[in-house]
Specification:
The complex is a heterodimer.
Chain A lengths: L1 H5 L9 H44 L4 H6 L11 H7 L6 H32 L5 H11 L4 H14 L7 H4 L8 H12 L3 H9 L4 H12 L1 H16 L3 H6 L8 H7 L9 H33 L3
Helix pairs in contact in A: 4-15, 5-9, 5-12, 10-11, 12-15, 14-15
Chain B lengths: L3 E10 L2 E11 L4 E5 L6 H9 L6 E6 L2 E2 L10 E4 L11 H11 L4 H15 L14 H13 L5 E5 L7 H18 L2 E6 L2 H7 L2 E6 L2 E6 L1 H6 L4 H6 L6 E8 L2 E4 L3 E4 L5 E7 L5 E2 L5 E12 L3 E8 L4 E7 L9 E6 L5 E3 L14
Parallel strand pairs in B: 3-8, 3-9, 6-7, 7-8
Antiparallel strand pairs in B: 1-2, 1-4, 4-5, 9-10, 11-12, 11-14, 12-13, 14-20, 15-19, 16-17, 16-19, 17-18
Helix pairs in contact in B: 2-3, 2-4, 3-4
The chains are: A mainly alpha, B alpha+beta.
Protein name (chain B): ABC transporter ATP-binding protein
GO molecular function, one term (chain B): ATP hydrolysis activity
Membrane topology (chain B): Peripheral membrane protein
């Protein structure tokens, strides 16, 4: 080795900087290849996931006979009238169904966010007797499928004379009926520092004021999450409206969609899918607005 | 300004008593520091005074009023938290004004007080910022600002400087002391840092395991500790403790020989502060030792010594002293600088007779 340096062959030896550069290059190349493979995999799986949606979109523009007969996604002719005809296909127009759905959903979201955050605040911060037992009971209701309580609940609301109205769909939302949201919020509230509550206590807040002025503004991400789920679940709820609503004028969108599948004659599938596409639009809009709140909320609180 | 009187205050969690019947009188306008190792109950005590923690037994009075059942907000006090506890979603201005708004104070008065606090603490240009945009020291100032706008009769501080870096801590310590001199309000300050306690306090209460060990001025605690715990807790570096044996009015201290004491016979201990450990032979008790470590601090030198019996001692020497590891030295103690503790750790009276 000493010889080579003596005869001036040093330039053939890569310097440490060159070696480092080569290693870096090799690493970058490997990184690129891995990234490429990862992306191919992700694109394929996301195509699988999104295919039904694209299929629905395509079918909403196809003539009825092409929907199940033709495998191609692209319609041979664009039937935009599926949308106009579908909107007015029932005895009652979809304007009414959308208004009904909006009414039920908006009230449900408001009810859920308010009442569940109330209950969650109590579980997370207040001291009352039997707190742990009540919390366990509440968590247990998470494990009971909706279908189990459906009939007893129906009888309850029937006795109350609420069937055939929106009350069974809305009133429970104002009574903190959804253990999942309560649990979600309790978990969120628990990670807010208790010092804030105590500082507020010294600053003259009663428990409600602490909830309202401190906890709630800091829990925008949790509230937005609950609002999104609550919106989606209520908007696309089929069973609840099916059980409690009998008059077509009261129907929500999912119920109305079901009416396209006629028991007696040919079903208008093109129109069904056209209306299905429209029924998704509010969810998408709502999600886009509220998911920004989640991110902004986390950034704003500066707790993380 | 108000005095605070605690009598027989106890606190239990479940069956476990963590504060055992504390009697403490905080004089009006005093800066009282509660100091003790972690878990000694000092924070619990402060929180009970604040009204954030219920007391199990006893009474707490602020001024003339017994506040056992008075909610925190009506005790006319402010508290600064270790974590600052600034409301993250409010601007600095709103953080300062929040408590006043809750009192339904007229807006001009709120603005006046916020402006005044901002001026005292030099946070005027931060008023529109959110807490997350502030540095640790700035947050600390805002937290103090939030306390002073209320113009309370009592300030409570719960380890307010422990989240700051060393340099800032020293700076804030001075500022807090200045603030106290300016406001003259009664302050109760909790810390585990005895240097903070010594530098700021009018009086210090040393706590250990839910009991008060001693209450006194920094001078009293340093020079006349009532027991071994206080003696070793106050002062940095720590007091040297030498185990000894008392017999008939004389104690035998290994390496050093005997000295007259006024304690019952049995195992005792003798304490001496590092600055009173003299290197040389100029003292009443002399032992031989070896230098094991030398720490140069600029203004002074810590010399770690090992005596013939294997016992370690620490001496504080002038920064001109030239000691090296391995040096054989003599260690001298003066009798008047010794603290004698009996078998229970209580300080024994000094022996007046000369042996």
């Amino acid at each position: 080795m000493a010889d080579t340096t003596l005869v001036g062959a040093a330039p053939t030896h890569p310097t440490t900087a060159q070696i480092a550069a080569a290693i870096r290059e090799e690493r970058a190349r490997r990184g690129k290849r891995a990234a490429l493979l990862k992306h191919i995999f992700l694109i394929i799986t996301s195509l699988v996931m999104i295919y039904p949606l694209i299929w629905m979109l395509a079918s909403s523009l196809k003539p009825d006979n092409q929907i199940f007969g033709n495998l191609g996604l692209w319609p041979s002719e664009l039937r935009w009238e599926n949308y106009t005809a579908g909107w007015n296909a029932m005895a009652v127009s979809f304007t009414r169904f959308f208004l009904n759905s909006t009414f039920v959903t908006v009230l449900s979201v408001i009810g859920n966010v308010i009442s569940c955050s109330f209950a969650a605040y109590a579980f997370a911060r207040l001291e009352f007797s039997g707190k742990n037992i009540w919390f366990a009971l509440m968590m247990m209701t998470l494990m009971i499928p909706y279908h189990v309580v459906l009939i007893p609940q129906y009888i309850l609301f029937l006795k109350a004379g609420w069937v055939d109205s929106y009350l069974p769909l809305i009133v429970p939302r104002f009574l903190a009926g959804d253990a999942f949201f309560i649990f979600l919020m309790v978990q969120f509230f628990r990670q807010l520092p208790r010092d804030l509550d105590e500082a507020a206590m010294i600053d003259g807040c009663n428990p409600f004021k602490i909830y309202w002025a401190i906890i709630l503004p800091l829990s925008v991400p949790a509230m937005a999450t609950a609002a999104i789920f609550s919106f989606i679940w209520t908007w696309e709820d089929f069973l609840g409206p099916l059980v409690y609503l009998n008059d077509m004028r009261d129907y929500t969108v999912p119920l109305a969609l079901r009416s396209f599948i006629a028991q007696d004659s040919v079903s208008a599938y093109g129109q069904l899918f056209a209306m299905s596409v429209l029924s998704i639009v509010p969810i998408v809009i709502f999600f886009i607005i509220f998911q920004r709140l989640i991110i902004r909320g986390i950034a704003m609180s500066g707790l993380k | 300004m108000a005095a605070v009187t605690l009598s027989e205050v106890r606190k239990s969690y479940g069956g476990l008593e963590v504060v055992h019947g504390i009697d403490l009188e905080v004089k009006s306008g005093e800066f009282l520091v509660l100091v003790g190792p972690s878990g000694c109950g000092k924070s619990t005590l402060l929180r009970m005074i604040a009204g954030l923690e219920e007391i199990t037994d006893g009474t707490i009075a602020i001024g003339e009023r017994i506040v056992n059942d008075v909610p925190a907000s009506q005790r006319n006090l402010s508290m600064v938290f270790q974590s600052y506890a600034l409301y993250p979603h409010m601007s600095v201005r709103k953080n300062l004004a929040f408590g006043l708004t809750n009192l339904r104070m007229p807006r001009p008065e709120i603005e006046r007080r916020v402006a005044e606090a901002a001026k005292i603490l030099q946070i005027g240009e931060l008023l529109e910022r959110k807490p997350r945009q502030l540095s640790g020291g700035q947050k600390q100032r805002v937290a103090i600002g939030r306390a002073i706008v209320r113009e309370p009769q009592l300030f409570l501080f719960d380890e307010p400087l422990s989240n700051l870096d060393a340099e800032l801590r020293v700076q804030m310590r001075v500022e807090l002391a200045n603030l106290y001199n300016r406001l003259g309000t009664t302050m109760i300050y909790v810390t585990h840092d005895q240097v903070e306690a010594m530098t700021m306090a009018t009086r210090i209460a040393v706590l250990s395991k839910g009991n008060i060990e001693q209450v006194g001025t920094p001078y009293e605690l340093y020079n006349f500790p009532r027991n071994r715990f206080v003696a070793t807790f106050i002062g940095s570096p720590k007091m040297n403790i030498l185990e000894a044996n008392a017999m008939g009015g004389a104690a035998t201290v290994a390496d050093f020989g005997t000295l007259p004491v006024v304690v019952p016979d049995g195992p005792i201990s003798v304490g001496i502060r590092p600055e009173q450990v003299l290197i040389g032979r100029d003292g009443d008790l002399v032992a031989e030792g070896k230098v094991t470590l030398v720490e140069y601090l600029g203004s002074e030198i810590f010399v770690h010594l090992r005596l013939a019996s294997g016992r370690d001692m620490l001496a504080k020497a002038a920064n001109t002293a030239q000691h090296k590891i391995g040096d054989e030295v003599s260690v001298a103690l003066r009798r008047e600088s010794l603290h004698t503790f009996d078998a229970n750790g209580l300080t024994a009276p000094r022996a007046t007779t000369t042996a």
